[in-house]
Amino acid sequence: xxxxxxxxxxxxxxxxxxxxxxxxxxxxxxxxxxxxxxxxxxxxxxxxxxxxxxxxxxxxxxxxxxxxxxxxxxxxxxxxxxxxxxxxxxxxxxxxxxxxxxxxxxxxxxxxxxxxxxxxxxxxxxxxxxxxxxxxxxxxxxxxxxxxxxxxxxxxxxxxxxxxxxxxxxxxxxxxxxxxxxxxxxxxxxxxxxxxxxxxxxxxxxxxxxxxxxxxxxxxxxxxxxxxxxxxxxxxxxxx
Length: 240
Description:
Elements: H1 3-21, H2 31-34, E1 56-61, E2 64-69, E3 73-75, E4 78-85, E5 90-95, E6 107-112, E7 116-121, E8 126-131, E9 137-143, E10 150-154, E11 157-164, E12 168-175, E13 181-186, E14 204-207, E15 210-214, E16 219-224, E17 230-236
Antiparallel strand pairs: 1-2, 2-4, 3-4, 4-5, 6-7, 7-8, 8-9, 10-11, 11-12, 12-13, 14-15, 15-16, 16-17
């Protein structure tokens, strides 16, 4: 067996060891930690006539698939995105504020649950919509001029975060039940961070009660709680 094969085996053993043995954080890592990247959903996709399928953003919540096409439409001079709910094949217009005078508004990311829809735009605004009694998402507030690339909703918190070279490794926690109270943290850029200039890497993830940041050019993970306090880290150093 050559050295390359031995190295790959050691790397695989490290990841197997980590994901099966690191269970003392936040009362243990539950099953969702292992299967958060792939989710099987029983849904029939609508035969929409999209000009560019690369512009379709998909998200899921409680076994329901949603999508937004990253190209706004106009209706009586009002601009909107189409939000599709594949559980009932319904389409809802999500209106963009008229105060946004720019002609081009694109989506960077979005997050959704039963009460909140958050759309992160390329003009560094995050639009937060609330579900009303008619089951429609109505704009409630907007967070302006925050340069983030990702958005996620977990429980009563919305997280905006970024880990690419032009914006830094940072996170903003928004309390959805406490008047959108904000808590911001800029982390030390992980080792190898400069390589995100060539291709964005998945260096940060947010799970139940924890934030994980990975270094890019070595096997080290940092674990933070939702108050942005470092609580643990784990690393692997090969023998050669």
